[in-house]
Amino acid sequence: MSLFRTDLNETLDDIEVSEIRQFDEATSSIPDIIKLTLGEPDFTIPEHVQQVAKQAIDDNFSHYTGNAGIPELRKAAADFQNKKYGLNYTADNVITTVGASEAIAAALGTIINPGDGVLLPAPIYSAYTPLINFYRGTEYRINTRPNNFVLTPEMVEDTIKANPHVNFKAIVLNYPSNPTGVTYRPDEIEALVEVFKKYKLWVVSDEIYSELTYGDTHTSIAKYLPEQTILINGLSKSHAMTGWRIGFIFAEVEMIDQIRKVHQYMVTAATSIVQKAAVEALTTGIDDGKEMAAEYLKRRDYVYGEMEKMGFEMARPDGAFYIFAKIPAGYIQDSMEFCKDLAQKNHLAIIPGHAFGDEGEGYVRISYAADLSKLQEAMKRLKAYMDTNK
Fold first, then answer.
1. What is the chain's Cα-based Rg?
2. Half-sphere exposure of residue 353, counting CA atoms within 13 Å on the CB side?
């Protein structure tokens, strides 16, 4: 007889496994499938970073570290942000986390009280909504599709004014964006800062793709609003260290002291060996992401050009490694059904736009974190599908 009980945390009723993961797993058994599904860099971790991790093992650096991470890593993370983006952090402004995902969970868990409103510019990565629900906050989505996926101060103000009885506590930003690749210019950030100040919103700013921008250097909102910003970053995308799970939270010291309480009881501390390697990544490897970004740019231009020929409408990505494309008229418009049909008939897996909320319906997301030969074959398969299924 099963001892499983159904009287669990009731918020779990509203939380499901990510549609991204569900679809990726569902298509894995298709023979000869090409998957452009997950946000997984195809590069290897830089050799010099690997060597430091090996040395840490040889040195038996295997015990607990302080909750917030080893001092040299916190300093290296602060220095990295300061040098790259003109910020003004010290080691005391940093918590080392188990990836950016844990950083987001700890940040939201610190600021949300039951019933608080949290603004989400949409479409948006699927991880934020379940966490907001779990902490018993309420999400209020702002549809950015009418403005090519760029949030404006007017959109924020309109949403707040339309819900006068809500205690709006925070807004989550993610830029460069997953799924659209859209990012923000300095003037756009400065305009948003004014409305965030006006309504005293905490800004949880997920800038994990900050090193993967094309053209202009990334602008962090923490440069203009440090007192209200909880900045999230990490090494998964910039150094292809996804499985090593190193992220960071940057904030004012008073906020760091509070977030540290949540972080401590979630994970105690990040892995000791990987922390040593992360110091190397942020110092000797401070520009490791540039080579990857240059290659991603070539891939973006290729995929964008091929899909444009097929009739897809897209915002041109300025960062990350995704293309978010509107399904052309005359084809299946339900994004899940379109992607299932494509996978079954032409053995190409891409992500349904609905995985990023209702605002993503009618779109698909393609990850171009794959080598060019794989992308070329993927575009052949997509074209064959588009030619025969209209």
1. 21
2. 22
pLDDT given for residue 16 in this prediction: 79
- Distance, in Å, from the CA atom of 107 to the CA atom of 110, rounded to the nearest integer, reads 5
Domain ranges of the chain: 16-39+288-388, 47-282
**CATH 3.40.50.920 is the classification of domain 47-282:** no
Strand order in the sheet with 322-326: 313-314, 322-326, 363-367, 351-352
- Give the separation between CA 365 and CA 322, rounded to whole angstroms: 7
Q: Up-side HSE of residue 350: CA atoms within 13 Å toward CB?
A: 30
**pLDDT tens digits along 82-115:** 999 999 999 999 999 999 999 999 999 999 999 9
Report residue 238's pLDDT band, with 50, 70 and 90 as the boundaries.
very high
Q: Check the CA dihedral 116-121-124-125 and report its sign.
A: negative
Q: Answer yes or no: are the C-beta atoms of 6 and 334 closer than 8 Å.
A: no
Domain spanning 16-39+288-388, CATH class: alpha beta
